[in-house]
């Protein structure tokens, strides 16, 4: 019906169009506005699926690039396009926003403002995944901040102001670092563009980085540190994670679902799409530290989750732990001295990618489960639950499946990513692999313990026992929508790998080239060629 | 040899045939003042509301400068850049842009005062006389080509400003603020005048374009700062900069700013915060470029001044942002924010001087540094242009809200978000732009300035420090700007608070008219950056 170029533009801007129409809606027509927004997110999701249908990986490169001149004197373009890596995340985004919209029915305060911000947020996220111009990427990246601040700050829990400003500050700080890195690359690429201005084109910058002689090792290291901190805040990894538990706990349920399901993936995506391709030398230089940070995140997040008594906070820390696998998978970069390739690293990268998608399904599910019970009994104290299986059998069953998916039970989506990552980490460093594998046990520990305290046991002894009613049909629909991909991805992981394998292989190849082509400073021992 | 008679004829000829025409927008504004004052004393026309007279004058001046600017920037236009009034004033793209900018700003300010009802009918002629008089002074600042005009411009701006700050006669705070402003202003003007007289005495001329050449003749080669002449040159330049720093409210000459802004009406504060900055920055750039020449010694003095300005800019931004955090009064908060923004803009002037006067040996590096210094002026002009809308917007909304809730305290803004959505939406746009978040214009402006500072880092390491401080300040500033939004949207409206209602038409329209350009400048900056680039290139290279 539409060409892929038109489709990708529509995916970015359909939510905004729906948001603009909402401005003229009557404040009292609450139900209409909800349905309207639901239709908007549903159309966007349908468009993402349609775009996925037209996609064939080809050689794994970026496809259907649309480039329109935006600010010509600065070489800034409106440049969008996609490959399997971004496309799977785009579909995930469409899905999570649709499901979260269904979960937003319970929002009663200032509905109109909520829905408008919700839709603007979707545009920002989609824009980041499609952007291929660094400047455009940055603009969309920051555009997400505005709605997110208000969504947490107005519709959040008791400490919402604190959580909102903390989220804003952390992300803005990361953004400023990214801005400086952006200027560094813009400046350094001036000799390559032909008109002496410099370039924001991520594809060109990546190409020049792969040539190796354009960006000096010093620049790549400095740039990588700046970019990595910027993205690591979003992921979030230890020690930049402290905003996350606060934001999650205070945000309303649907916003927590989006935050965990999609926004955290932006950090991982940024590392894969921007930080690594632009600074292959810097990434390789820092790889051991990165793996170590990832492993610490896994274990630290798991221990922290184990210690929580607040159900939602526990789930929030589980996100820190699970996103640690993503970082480990991305970072285990070791070039084999026999073949000159990095097959295990490719496996790690694929695992990280899969983990992002899997976590994007399971963590919104977990937050949704927390939200369902919180809506009824208005507390989240793990020690005051118990016996829900008898009162809400269907809900408990669904929750069990979703939590097991988060745990990484074979056959469910959480398993594949973790296994890939841990296996590839073994090749990189046995110590770190063992530590990260122990994270799996800790994960099982906190999830099983939480399940036991919330769902099992003889009877519910906390406040508001009278309010515990079975799930309504809307909630069931959300539950099923989240459970189906948990199973599907776990049983047939090629739903993701079919799309990401070739782009990932291409990326790994060009990063290896970039590293090997970059002239090494004197005295630098090649730690990888063991 | 000319005899005196032909000289007079020649001068008369130049004045009537070119100078007066080029000076016409200022003359129109002066005529407006006369008409307004006549309105006051002549019984027949007494009933004409003065704001319409003022508005008509401002519109005419704006249209005229727009025409002049258009003719200047289009290739083959009817007007050429030249100095006029025997070299006292300069007519070029740069000055005409600022005159246009200032008259546009005059229109917006007068419109705002019409909407808010300050001043009342009785005081109208006085107020608009002061307002327009100050604007003429700023326009002279922007086109000054001679040290004498520098001083006249600064004083013509300052004196009406003092009176405007104290305009609300009944209020003690207002009079106090005006007094503070006068005392500081007089001190700064005295120092500046001393500096000017030193410079003029050393060089034997007041003409800015001749200054570099004369300086290179008298400067002691290779003796550095130890030589008395060199020391006097540096001292004199610093004294002139003190005068400008006062107008810009640069740390440590900023003390008047929060008090004056708090005492003055928000409309006046908005006017002073934008317009007098624009004039002063135009003047600063021109003064800085007056050091351009072949002499290495003069260049190295200017280079050192540039580095100093960078450090001052970093200090100003940091100080402004940190002090703003503790404020509870909106006007004081915005006054500190104004100080911080002066710091950012000063960074771009510093980058300009560092790049322009760097000691490169090979011609390639010189050419590159010159090209880079273009982007500094481009960035500064863009910043000022966005700043016009975002800062005026913020002050205008403070004034409009004051008319409803009779308060300028931040705590009284609680929960306004639902009661006057248009005003609060406008404030949100302005605040996000002031923080420097995309897609607002403030982001692109800040981006352009950081870019020029970044380029200057290749010349001197201190600029890395300046850039780092500037970047960190963006994060600092979030703290207090977000308090405004928090009060409006997140805090609930207190029980029993007066219900605020707004008739949407004139006020809402005005707010949107100011705030939507902020958004537009962020989304579509291309057209403006190209124009500014052209202006900068004419100013720096003559082409």
Description:
The complex is a heterodimer of chains A (530) and B (543). In chain A, 72% of the residues lie in helices and 3% in strands. With 530 residues, chain A is mainly α. Chain A has a domain at 289-516. In chain A, α17 (393-407) packs parallel to α20. In chain B, strands 1-2 form a two-stranded antiparallel ribbon. Chain B is built from 19 helices and 2 strands. Chain B has helices spanning 4-22, 24-41, 50-73, 93-116, 124-143, 147-165, 172-203, 208-218, 228-248, 256-263, 266-289, 296-324, 330-356, 363-405, 421-435, 441-456, 462-490, 504-523, 526-541, and strands at 82-84, 89-91. Helix content of chain B is 76%, strand content 1%. Chain B has a domain at 1-161. The interface between A and B is medium-sized, with 34 and 31 residues.
β-strand percent of chain A reads under 5%
- The helicity of chain A comes to over 70%
Percent helix of chain B: over 70%
Spatial shape of chain A: globular
- The number of helical segments of chain A is 21
Q: What does the main sheet of chain A amount to?
A: 2 strands, antiparallel
Oligomer: heterodimer
Tally of strands of chain A: 2
Structural class of chain B: mainly alpha
Taking the alpha carbons of the first and last residues of chain B, their distance comes to: 34 Å
| Largest sheet entry of chain B | 2 strands, antiparallel
| Radius of gyration based on Cα positions of chain A | 22 Å
The SSE order of chain A reads: HHEEHHHHHHHHHHHHHHHHHHH
| Rg of chain B (C-alpha, Å) | 23 Å
Mean pLDDT over the residues of chain B: 86
Structural class of chain A: mainly alpha
N-to-C CA distance of chain A: 53 Å
How many DSSP H or I helices of chain B? 19
Taking pLDDT < 50 over at least 5 consecutive residues as the criterion, the unreliable ranges of chain B are none
What is the 3D shape of chain B?
Answer: globular
């Amino acid at each position: 019906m539409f060409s892929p170029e038109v489709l990708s533009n529509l995916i970015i801007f359909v939510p905004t169009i729906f948001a603009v129409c909402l401005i003229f809606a009557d404040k009292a027509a609450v139900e209409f506005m909800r349905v309207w927004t639901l239709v908007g997110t549903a159309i966007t999701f349908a468009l993402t699926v349609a775009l996925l249908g037209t996609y064939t990986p080809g050689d794994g490169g970026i496809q259907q690039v649309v480039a329109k001149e935006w600010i010509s004197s600065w070489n800034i373009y409106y440049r969008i396009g996609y490959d399997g890596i971004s496309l799977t995340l785009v579909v995930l985004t469409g899905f999570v926003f649709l499901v979260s919209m269904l979960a937003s029915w319970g929002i009663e305060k200032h509905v109109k403002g909520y829905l408008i911000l919700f839709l603007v947020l979707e545009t920002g996220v989609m824009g980041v995944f499609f952007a291929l111009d660094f400047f455009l990427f940055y603009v969309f990246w920051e555009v997400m901040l505005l709605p997110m601040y208000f969504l947490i700050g107005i519709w959040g829990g008791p400490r919402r102001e604190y959580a909102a400003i903390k989220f804003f500050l952390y992300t803005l700080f990361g953004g400023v670092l990214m801005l400086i890195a952006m200027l560094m690359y813009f400046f350094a690429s001036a000799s390559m563009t032909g008109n002496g201005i410099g370039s924001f084109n991520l594809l060109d910058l990546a190409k020049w980085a792969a040539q190796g002689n354009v960006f000096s090792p010093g620049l790549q290291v400095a740039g990588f540190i700046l970019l990595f901190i910027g993205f690591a805040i979003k992921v979030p990894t230890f020690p930049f994670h402290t905003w996350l538990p606060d934001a999650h706990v205070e945000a309303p349920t649907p916003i927590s679902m989006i935050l965990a399901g999609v926004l955290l993936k932006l950090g991982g995506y940024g590392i894969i799409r921007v930080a690594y391709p632009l600074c292959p030398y810097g990434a390789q230089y820092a790889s051991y530290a990165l793996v170590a940070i990832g492993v610490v995140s896994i274990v630290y997040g798991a221990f922290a989750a184990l210690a929580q008594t607040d159900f939602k906070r526990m789930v929030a820390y589980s996100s820190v732990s699970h996103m640690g696998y993503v970082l480990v998978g991305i970072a285990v970069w070791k070039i084999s001295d026999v073949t000159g390739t990095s097959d295990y690293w490719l496996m790690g990268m694929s695992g990280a990618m899969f983990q992002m998608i899997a976590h994007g399904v399971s963590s919104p599910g977990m937050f949704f489960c927390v939200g369902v019970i919180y809506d009824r009994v208005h507390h989240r104290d793990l020690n005051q639950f118990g016996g829900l299986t008898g009162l809400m059998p269907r809900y408990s069953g669904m929750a069990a499946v979703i939590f097991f998916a988060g745990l990484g039970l074979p056959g469910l989506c959480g398993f594949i990513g973790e296994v890939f990552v841990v296996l590839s980490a073994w090749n990189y460093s046995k110590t770190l692999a063992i530590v990260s594998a122990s994270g799996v046990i800790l994960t099982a520990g906190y999830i099983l313990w939480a399940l036991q305290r919330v769902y099992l046991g003889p009877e519910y002894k906390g406040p508001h026992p009278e309010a515990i009613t079975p799930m309504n049909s809307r909630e069931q629909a959300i539950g099923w929508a989240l459970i189906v991909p948990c199973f599907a991805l776990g049983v047939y992981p090629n739903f993701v790998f079919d799309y990401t394998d070739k782009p990932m292989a291409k990326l790994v190849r060009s990063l290896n080239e970039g590293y090997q082509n970059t002239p090494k400073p004197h005295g630098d021992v090649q730690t990888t060629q063991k | 040899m000319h005899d005196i008679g032909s000289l007079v004829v020649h001068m008369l000829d130049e004045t009537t045939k070119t100078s007066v025409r080029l000076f016409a927008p200022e003359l129109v504004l002066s005529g407006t003042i006369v008409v307004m004052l006549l309105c006051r004393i002549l019984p027949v026309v007494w009933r004409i509301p003065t704001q319409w007279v003022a508005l008509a004058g401002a519109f005419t001046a704006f249209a005229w400068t727009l025409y002049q600017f258009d003719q200047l920037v289009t290739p083959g236009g009817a007007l050429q850049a030249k100095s006029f009034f025997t070299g006292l004033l300069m007519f070029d793209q740069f000055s005409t842009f600022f005159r246009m900018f200032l008259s546009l700003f005059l229109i917006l300010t007068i419109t705002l005062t019409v909407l808010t009802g300050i001043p009342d009918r009785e005081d109208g002629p006085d107020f608009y006389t002061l307002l327009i008089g100050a604007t003429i002074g700023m326009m002279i600042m922007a086109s000054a080509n001679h040290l004498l005009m520098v001083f006249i411009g600064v004083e013509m701006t300052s004196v009406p400003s003092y009176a405007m700050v104290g305009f609300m006669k009944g209020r003690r705070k207002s009079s106090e603020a005006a007094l503070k402003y006068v005392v500081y202003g007089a001190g700064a003007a005295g120092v500046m005048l001393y500096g000017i007289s030193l410079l003029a005495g050393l060089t034997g001329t007041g003409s800015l374009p001749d200054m570099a050449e004369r300086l290179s003749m008298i400067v002691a080669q290779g003796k550095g700062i130890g030589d008395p002449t060199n020391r006097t040159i540096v001292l004199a330049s610093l004294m002139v900069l003190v005068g400008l720093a006062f107008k810009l409210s640069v740390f440590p000459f900023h003390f008047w700013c929060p008090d004056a802004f708090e005492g003055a009406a928000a409309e006046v504060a908005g006017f002073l915060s934008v317009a007098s900055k624009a004039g002063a920055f135009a003047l600063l750039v021109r003064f800085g470029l007056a050091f351009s020449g072949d002499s290495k010694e003069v260049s190295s003095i200017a280079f050192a001044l540039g580095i100093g300005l960078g450090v001052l800019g970093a200090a100003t931004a940091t100080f402004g942002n940190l002090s703003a955090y503790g404020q509870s009064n909106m006007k004081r908060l915005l006054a500190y924010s104004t100080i911080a923004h002066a710091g950012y803009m000063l960074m771009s002037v510093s980058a300009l001087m560092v790049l322009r006067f760097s000691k490169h040996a090979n011609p390639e590096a010189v050419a590159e540094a010159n090209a880079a210094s273009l982007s500094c002026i481009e960035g500064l002009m863009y910043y000022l242009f966005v700043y016009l809308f975002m800062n005026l917007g913020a002050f205008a909304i403070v004034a409009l809200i004051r008319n409803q809730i009779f308060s300028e305290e931040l705590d009284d803004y609680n929960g306004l978000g639902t009661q006057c959505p248009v005003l609060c939406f406008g404030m949100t746009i302005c605040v996000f732009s002031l923080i420097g978040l995309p897609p607002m214009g403030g982001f692109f402006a800040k981006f352009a300035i950081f870019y020029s500072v970044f380029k200057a880092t290749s010349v001197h390491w201190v600029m890395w420090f300046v850039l780092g401080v500037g970047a960190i300040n963006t994060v600092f500033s979030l703290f207090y700007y977000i308090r405004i939004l928090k009060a409006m949207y997140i805090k609930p409206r207190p029980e029993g608070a007066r219900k605020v209602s707004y008739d949407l038409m004139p006020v809402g329209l005005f707010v949107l008219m100011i705030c939507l350009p902020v958004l537009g400048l962020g989304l579509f900056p291309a057209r403006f950056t190209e124009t500014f680039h052209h202006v900068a290139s004419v100013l720096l290279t003559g082409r």
